[in-house]
Design a protein that fits this description.
Blueprint (H helix, E strand, L loop, with lengths): L8 E2 L3 E4 L3 H11 L13 H18 L3 E6 L5 E8 L8 E6 L8 H17 L5 E5 L3 H9 L3 E5 L8 E5 L8
Antiparallel strand pairs: 1-2, 2-3, 3-4, 4-5, 6-8, 7-8
Helix pairs in contact: 1-2
Amino acid sequence: MTLTAAPTLVSARLTLGPATLAHAKAFMAFVTTDAARFIGGPASRDDGWDSVCAHAGQWLLRGYGTFWVSETATNAPVGRVGIFHPDRRAEAELSWVIYPAHEGKGYATEAARHARDWAYATLGLAPLMSLIDTANTASARVAEKLDATIEARHEPNGGKDILRWRHPGPKGRA
């Protein structure tokens, strides 16, 4: 199965879909702040643009990737959630980034669960993993809500304390 762009999924409060210029602008603004520290930031707007393009391009190359998330009611961009699988990694990662103005609403858990269930049902992917910096307690809480468990320390880790969390497979998902 090869797609040229992300399909559109709708959860209770969120729309997950392909990258748009509104999402790119929101992400480019986000990466320039300290809130982006767990994904390599702060970084330049140009780096943000390159990341948006890489994530959008993964759909073309792999047939899956990350979704750009909006509030369904307002269409406001709230983040990026989905399957990240760069060539340097042996397996796909369920990843999530929610912008600070939208944190604390359960959006990461809702969107990640929806993306994970879609990946299992549509792509038949093996149980997914998530890589989470030990200092990122908010992402660790999301992983716990998704019934993921710590599997091991992640190597190579670029000098950071990163844990690999394993999500339950399709039969045992949250």
